[in-house]
Design brief:
α7 runs parallel beside α10, α8 crosses α11 and α8 runs parallel beside α13. 33% of the residues are buried. This protein has 392 residues and is of the alpha/beta class. The chain has a five-stranded mixed β-sheet. It has two domains: 111 residues, Transcription Regulator spoIIAA, CATH 3.30.750; 236 residues, no CATH class.
């Protein structure tokens, strides 16, 4: 429909006319002409409905926030003014600012008077989603996430297995760069937090054990908890929050800027170039970071034991081989490659699923950290149950 096509409110050729148009600044302009009185209006005026139809076909005007009413009305009575007042009220209800200054003062006063007498339009109340629908929607969403993750694991198994059989095709330069970013630069925060957690465990254990004169057992508690649980788990959670989120942000930004589509266009597999090096690097880095965290955690416990509970460094480190052995260390380290795969895959999967704007990148980063942390804790619990069933 052309922008200046008129809307006739009656079937006669000389009836009231409404001509909507797009103004010079993009606002909606309504030009009323002809006789707007009871004698010329139809029995059921439909100018308001026709205007809504016209706006639906002109979204560039429908989305505006300004409207101007002008006219050369040859006649206007309360019936015609009521129709115009309902049109103006509908536009204001949609959030527009309607300007009536172009109308004669008498006509504007009559329209304002009738508009003030109209019943207020109530916005439709949003339907509240029932608890059953919310549970169903959340369940379907989690099933979709699980399916996407399993598909990503399958792609890693297929493409990664094929590339590992041809190691010369692996982009080792990218792997080394990822090892530096995810491992070397994370030593500070991992070491500091592990040291502090070791101190906290020693304080909490010593506060109880000292009441029974069993200060020496601080070594048992700190060593076993650090090597089997706290070292691997704390390191994995730190890496999930630090490195997994960076994977999501990097790949999500590349999706937004269409860099990944450009790689596909020139025949380079994004999985081979971007994802597989991250997975390999994290599988190498996470066990090494865990060993480093174990050492700092034991050292933090030794400091507290020596200066607070009178267990000297010599006694502390002499007792360590009696309390733990290589099996204890390996039971903690065997979990770390699984943690690494989960963290890397979730971070990359959420990044590759980003679509829309920068807001989607932030949302995907949050989801990535939450999911990776949750799965790391779940997997750690499953390993604990498995080791217990195996007698370790």
């Amino acid at each position: 429909m052309p922008a200046n096509e008129s809307i006739t409110a009656s079937d006669t050729g000389n009836g009231p006319m409404l001509e909507p148009a797009r103004g010079s600044e993009g606002e909606l302009c309504l030009h009323f002409s002809g006789p707007w009185d009871l004698a010329h209006l139809p029995s059921e005026p439909d100018a308001e409905a026709r205007l809504a139809t016209w706006l639906a076909s002109h979204p560039e005007v429908a989305n505006g926030r300004q409207a101007t009413v002008e006219g050369a009305l040859s006649a206007l009575d309360s019936a015609g003014a009521l129709v115009i007042a309902r049109i103006v009220d509908g536009l204001e209800h949609d959030g527009r600012q309607v300007n009536l200054d172009a109308l004669p003062a008498g006509q504007r006063k009559l329209i304002d008077l009738l508009k003030g007498r109209l019943a207020p339009r109530e916005r439709p109340k949003p339907r509240r989603t029932g608890w059953l629908a919310m549970i169903g929607r959340a369940t379907v969403g989690k099933l979709i996430e699980t399916n996407a993750f399993l598909a990503f694991v399958g792609e890693l198994s297929m493409q990664g297995g094929r590339l590992l059989l041809m190691p010369w095709r692996v982009r080792w330069r990218e792997v080394v760069a990822e090892i530096e970013a995810a491992g070397l630069r994370a030593l500070g925060i991992v070491g500091l937090l592990s040291f502090l957690i070791g101190m906290v465990m020693a304080y909490q254990a010593g506060a109880t054990l000292s009441d029974y004169g069993a200060n020496i057992l601080i070594v048992n508690l700190v060593a076993i908890l650090t090597l089997r649980e706290m070292g691997p788990l704390l390191t994995a959670i730190i890496v999930a929050g630090r490195t997994g989120s960076s994977y999501t942000a990097q790949l999500g930004t590349m999706r937004i800027t269409e860099e990944i589509d450009a790689l596909r266009a020139i025949g380079i597999s994004p999985f081979e170039m971007l994802i597989l090096p991250k997975v390999i690097a994290l599988m190498i880095v996470l066990p090494l970071l865990t060993v480093f965290a174990n050492i700092l955690g034991l050292l933090g416990g030794a400091v507290v034991a020596a200066y607070r509970f009178e267990v000297s460094f010599a006694v502390y480190f002499d007792r360590l081989p009696e309390v733990v052995n290589l099996t204890t260390l390996l039971l903690g380290l065997v979990k770390t490659p699984v943690f690494a795969i989960v963290i890397a895959l979730i971070g990359c999967m959420q990044g590759m699923r980003v679509a829309g704007s920068a807001l989607a990148v932030g949302r995907a980063t949050t989801v990535s950290v939450v999911q990776a942390t949750f799965l790391v804790i779940v997997i750690d619990a499953l390993f604990s149950v498995l080791f217990n069933l195996m007698g370790y």
